[in-house]
Design brief:
By secondary structure, this protein is α/β, with parallel strands linked by helices. 39% of the residues lie in helices and 20% in strands. The chain is built from 9 helices and 11 strands. A 9-stranded parallel sheet has the order 9-8-7-6-5-4-3-10-11. It has a two-stranded antiparallel ribbon with strand order 1-2. The longest helix has 21 residues. The protein is globular and about 50 Å long. The chain starts with 11 loop residues before the first strand and ends with a helix.
Length: 275
């Protein structure tokens, strides 16, 4: 990596997964409410991943995202960590990403106790040694983001700093500012999800992503893997365009989706083969 215009993003290597190598990695969310639902869905993900991978050589599920905002017992440290231990075993060949998505950014509605205990929840998870990655929302605030990203790095956990706009696709300058903040605050991976109003918004996000990942138009100093997507029906093409735009991770569903516009795993693999 030299930082010159036209360079691609540097890779982030976690275990045997090379994030940002030009081939978008596939992440499947886990969204059950109870331990029973979560473990059932986990087995479904294992089975469906194996089936799809056998039919689409060259593509695999690399990451499983545990969406803790869905989990009813997320405030119970014992139950949460015991569940993570089981998930770590079930997905031993995949990276495990821990995410608590706020209601403001598209997460499940939670009771006040969970929101008030987020600092504790992240502390438990980070020091447990049971996850490879955590997602931290940029808009949680500078102190919160830096504290959690620093604690994560001290414990060998990589950090996705994210922003999900449920109303619009921000102007390029605003997205650039967010990415620069994410880098300063300790991101290993930067993530922006937007809501397009029209096809122009989708094209603009894709062009912005490509310029950032290739270091064009003054973006050469933002040297981190980038994940972007336009949510909803309009933005489906952004979920399969990573080879062109450089977006490093794409999300597919097995069972329930965690965001509007996610494609079923097999359909995503089929579309990626056509790119």
């Amino acid at each position: 990596m030299t930082g010159a215009a036209g360079d691609v993003m540097p890779e982030l290597v976690i275990k045997n997964c090379h994030i940002g190598d030009g081939n978008p990695k596939i992440c499947v969310p886990l969204v059950g409410r109870t331990e029973e639902e979560i473990l059932k869905q986990a087995i479904d993900i294992v089975k469906e991943s194996a089936r799809c991978e056998s039919q689409h050589p060259g593509y695999k599920v690399d990451i499983v995202e545990f969406r803790a905002d869905y989990y009813d017992d997320v405030t119970n440290s014992t139950k949460l960590l015991e569940l993570l231990k089981v998930l770590r075993d079930v997905f031993s060949d995949k990276l495990l990403l821990f995410t608590y998505r706020s209601e403001e950014e598209g997460g499940e509605f939670r009771h006040d106790r969970a929101e008030n205990m987020l600092a504790d929840i992240y502390e438990w998870v980070i020091v447990s040694g049971l996850v490879d990655l955590i997602d931290i929302e940029l808009l949680q605030g500078n102190y919160y983001v830096v504290r959690n990203s620093t604690k994560a790095h001290d414990n060998g956990v990589r950090v996705i700093i994210s922003n999900h706009d449920l109303e619009k696709t921000p102007h390029d300058a605003d997205m650039e500012e967010m990415l620069r903040e994410m880098k300063i605050f300790g991101a290993d991976i930067m993530k922006i999800a937007t809501t397009p109003k029209n096809e122009f918004d989708v094209r603009r996000l894709m062009e912005f992503t490509e310029n950032v990942t290739k270091g064009n138009k003054g973006y050469e100093d933002i040297q981190l893997p980038l994940v972007t997507m336009a949510m909803g029906e309009l933005g489906k093409k952004t979920r399969v365009s990573g080879k062109t735009t450089g977006s490093a991770i794409t999300f597919a569903m097995v069972g329930n989706a965690s965001a509007p516009g996610q494609l079923p795993l097999e359909e995503l693999m089929q579309e990626l083969e056509r790119v």
